[in-house]
Structure formats: C-alpha cells, structure tokens
C-alpha cells in the first residue's frame, strides 16, 4: 500500500494533503515562486471531446476514403471519389453555360455578339476569368504588358486587334509549335560596327520622344535596314508581327541601351498556341474580350 506521506502535495510527516483555501482543491506540492499548482480534475468537456473525436475518426475511416494503399486508397462504404466528383461538377458547370457558349463556336459574327447587350453582360465574368487564368500572367491583368510581353490595351498591335485576327493568334500562337503558327523575328545586326549600331540605337530610342533627327546617320541606317518591317520612321501598323517604335509600349524597352542589346543579339519571343487547351468557343470568347482591352471594334469592354 502506498504511503500517503509520499503522495504529491502530502505533508511528508503527517501524510495529509495541503488544501488551497480559495478553491478547496488539493495541491500537488509544486510551487513556482509562490504560485502553487492545484490538483484539479481533468475537465470532462475535454474528455468528451476526445471521445467524440475518436468515434468520428472511426466512422470516417469506415465510410469515407481514408487509408492509402500504395497507388490506390480505401474507398469507404459510401464509395466517394473526389476525382469523379470534381469531374461531375465540371460537367454540370459546362452544361449550364452551353446555352450561351454555343453562340461563340465555329466562326461567329463578332459584331452581332457585341451588339447583344444581355449576352455580353452574361458572358463577361466568364471571359474575365478566362483572361486572368490564361493571359494575365504574361500580359498583366489590365493588359499593360511588360518586358518581353506586348501591351494589349492600346491601339498598336503586332498582327491586328480585331477579334477574328486575335482568335487566329490564340489558336496558332507566335513562334510556337503549331504547324500554322505565326512567325516573327528581330534579326541580330551584329554585322554592323559598334559605331553604326550606336547611331541606329540612338535614333530608334528618340523616335518615341518625337526628337529623332531624321537627317542623321542613324536615320539613314534605319531606312536601309529597318523601314521594310517597322514602317516609315517606325510608325509600324503593318500587321506583320513587328512593333511600332514611336510609342512607349515597345516590348523590350526603348532606351538606347536596350535597343543596342536588341540590335546586337536580336529578339524572338514566343506566344503559346491555345487550340490544344481551349475550345474554339472559349478562344472566340477570349478574343472578343482581348479586343475590348484595346477598344477595338467588336470587343467586349469591361
């Protein structure tokens, strides 16, 4: 039999426990700087919570998918499968939007679609979501572009801002793996002398400021080597994949140092094609939305 004098909180001579005069609980004999630990019973609510948690876990193990079995897992008596549930949910969402998405399939009349205010109000949230999921990471949420990625919310376009042209670009990409991809490349001018490249880069950098000297040696070099692609004095607009050089939306930058690097090394960006990831209807919807970023005729405006 245990000697009561050896129990926690008991007086070593009499074996009697010290009782806290405020709460009436025995003490454990532990004291931290005058703070005495009470020998309080474990809260029943905690015990019940532990019991209920254990019972729930047992029931869940039996009814729900729970235990991994290598590459598989136990299905549970309810036979639930989250993959199948997710696919079914996607089918339900797709079925609900087919009544309006079908109008974007094939080769739709974009002007007629834009003129249907009720339809546009209904599809705008889906179009915005599609843009943010597919395009915003490169072109920005508002289409402002960035280093290496064209601006989409202005009037200077590489291939054309109408929905039909944008849809084609989305389908085949630019410098991508699609057999019908659009192709555009800025060749390297490393065959020029450094002085010639410097003169040309200074001229190109000044085009966007309106202070370019069109009688300079750089202007002559531009006419001989760049005019065919970039247009007279770099105004662009030839819809051949080549940017205008007269605004602030140049893809890689318009300062003389960046232009110098472009002349020395060339550029060839890649726009992926989306025909293997989006349906034709989704591509047409996205094209209508992107056209609206630039205010092009037939685009969806937010």
Q: What would you say this structure looks like, in words?
A:
This protein is mainly alpha-helical. It folds into three domains: 4-38, no CATH class; 44-73, no CATH class; 132-293, Orthogonal Bundle (Cytochrome Bc1 Complex, Chain D, domain 2). Helix content is 43%, strand content 5%. It contains eleven helices and four strands, in the order E-E-H-E-E-H-H-H-H-H-H-H-H-H-H. It has helices at 44-63, 82-101, 110-115, 117-134, 136-139, 163-172, 194-207, 217-225, 227-230, 256-265, 280-293; strands spanning 27-32, 35-38, 68-69, 72-73. Strands 1-2 form a two-stranded antiparallel sheet. It has a two-stranded antiparallel sheet with strand order 3-4. Strand 1 (27-32) and strand 2 form a beta hairpin. Helix 4 (117-134) packs across helix 11 (280-293), helix 7 packs across helix 8 (217-225) and helix 7 (194-207) packs across helix 10. The mean pLDDT is 86.
């Amino acid at each position: 039999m245990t000697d009561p004098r050896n129990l926690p909180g008991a007086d070593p001579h009499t074996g009697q426990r010290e009782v806290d005069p405020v709460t009436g609980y025995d003490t454990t004999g532990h004291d931290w700087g005058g703070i005495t630990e009470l020998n309080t019973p474990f809260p029943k609510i905690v015990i019940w919570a532990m019991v209920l948690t254990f019972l729930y876990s047992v029931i869940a193990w039996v009814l729900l998918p729970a235990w991994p079995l290598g590459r598989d897992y136990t299905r549970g008596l309810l036979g639930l499968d989250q993959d199948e549930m997710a696919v079914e949910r996607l089918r339900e969402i797709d079925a609900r939007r087919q009544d309006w998405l079908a109008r974007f399939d094939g080769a739709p009349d974009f002007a007629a679609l834009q003129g249907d205010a009720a339809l546009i109000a209904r599809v705008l949230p889906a179009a915005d979501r599609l843009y943010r999921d597919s395009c915003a990471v490169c072109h920005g949420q508002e289409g402002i572009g960035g280093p290496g990625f064209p601006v989409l919310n202005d009037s200077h376009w590489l291939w054309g801002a109408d929905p039909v042209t944008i849809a084609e670009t989305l389908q085949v990409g630019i410098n991508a793996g699609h057999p019908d991809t659009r192709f555009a490349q800025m060749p390297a001018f490393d065959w020029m002398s450094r002085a010639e490249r410097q003169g040309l880069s200074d001229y190109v950098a000044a085009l966007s400021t309106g202070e370019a000297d069109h009688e300079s040696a750089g202007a002559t070099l531009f006419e001989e080597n760049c005019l065919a692609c970039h247009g007279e004095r770099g105004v662009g607009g030839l819809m051949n994949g080549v940017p205008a050089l007269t605004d602030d939306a140049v893809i890689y930058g318009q300062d003389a140092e960046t232009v110098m690097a472009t002349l020395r090394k060339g550029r060839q960006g890649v726009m992926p094609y989306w025909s293997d990831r989006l349906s034709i209807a989704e591509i047409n919807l996205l094209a209508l939305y992107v056209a609206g970023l630039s205010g092009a005729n037939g685009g969806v405006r937010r």
